[in-house]
Write a structure and sequence with these properties.
single chain; 317 residues; mainly alpha; 11 helices; globular
């Protein structure tokens, strides 16, 4: 428990420094700043693999799945890359939500901060629940595998569909609970008008982002559980990837149109992980194979998006 408590404590310190020091004053996050913070978070996450090695080598942490230090590091990095890859799809949705509710760029970081904080709590609960299921019921891994294959198929078929936050079920339920105003009052989530407390667009965007992240976690958590059922590796790789999501959003949200083929990369990753789950009791796939498939799929999608020119629509006469 000491290791878990220390890790969670460090995460809380990181978050406190983020909002209380580095982003104390609301400001627009430029690409250069986002790039620096993205590099910092990726460096922190990859450096943490050294901590993973030390924990398992010195037998400081419980090792229910009997991992060797080297194997633990490979599983951690693979899990981190899976979550980072699937987070890219989340970036697209966040951009649509901010655009739909006209959230000024100056307040977007604060909304994402609170969204990430809530995501950490919900994902921790989902990881505990998922690990418990796999540990107690071996057959549940087949359910996760089929679900990931279905998700990959659905993503392949619906990559052109548009998401409208204002017509979503979540938005309609918020309207039933709180009056909603279109007025933005600084970074406030609520304002009082004529004695009535109304939710601002910032609060509505926050709730929709929060609940949307839970839906994305339904894909990413089983995907990481396909790599390992070790709870600490699953939790740490997932959380460190989420922490870098905010800076990644500000880095690539302005280049969304360039990543036209990234969805196909995610389809390949989800399909591979789903198949790995289905055949886990019959075929043992080395971790370096999983790491290679994920890296090549993601890199291939990015390279294809940047190198293949976009087909121009024929002008109608």
């Amino acid at each position: 428990m000491l290791v878990w408590g220390s890790f969670i404590g460090i995460i809380i310190i990181f978050l406190a420094l983020d909002l209380g020091v580095f982003h104390k004053n609301d400001h627009v996050i430029k690409s250069k700043e986002a790039g620096i913070w993205t590099a910092i978070w990726i460096t922190v996450a990859l450096s943490f693999s050294g901590v993973i090695y030390w924990l398992f080598d010195a037998e400081i942490i419980a090792n229910p799945t009997g991992l060797t230090p080297n194997n633990a590091v490979l599983k951690y990095i693979t899990g981190y890359l899976i979550e980072l890859s699937l987070s890219i799809d989340n970036v697209f949705v966040i951009a649509v939500i901010f655009s739909a509710f006209k959230i000024p760029a100056i307040y977007q970081h604060r909304v994402l901060f609170w969204g990430i904080l809530g995501a950490i709590v919900f994902r921790a609960l989902m990881i505990i629940f998922g690990v418990a299921l796999i540990t107690k019921f071996d057959w549940i891994i087949y359910v996760f595998g089929v679900f990931l294959l279905y998700t990959a198929f659905k993503m392949l078929r619906s990559h052109d569909s548009e998401f409208d936050p204002k017509s979503s079920f979540i938005f309609k339920q918020i309207k039933k609970i709180y009056p909603i105003t279109s007025k933005i009052n600084g970074h406030d989530f609520f304002i009082k008008r004529m004695g009535v407390t109304a939710a601002t667009p910032l609060f509505v965007a926050l709730v929709i982002i929060e609940l949307t992240d839970i839906l994305f976690a339904l894909d990413s958590i089983p995907a990481i559980l396909a790599i390992t059922a070790d709870p600490f590796i699953v939790f740490s790789s997932n959380i460190l990837a989420i922490l870098g999501l905010r800076s990644m959003y500000f880095l690539i949200s302005r280049m969304l149109q360039k990543f036209r083929f990234i969805n196909y990369s995610l389809v390949v990753i989800l399909a591979f992980v789903g198949l790995k789950m289905l055949f886990s009791h019959h075929i043992e796939i080395a971790e370096w194979v999983s790491l290679t498939v994920i890296s090549v799929s993601l890199g291939g999608g990015i390279a294809a998006s940047l190198l293949i020119p976009e087909a121009k629509e024929e002008e109608k006469l």
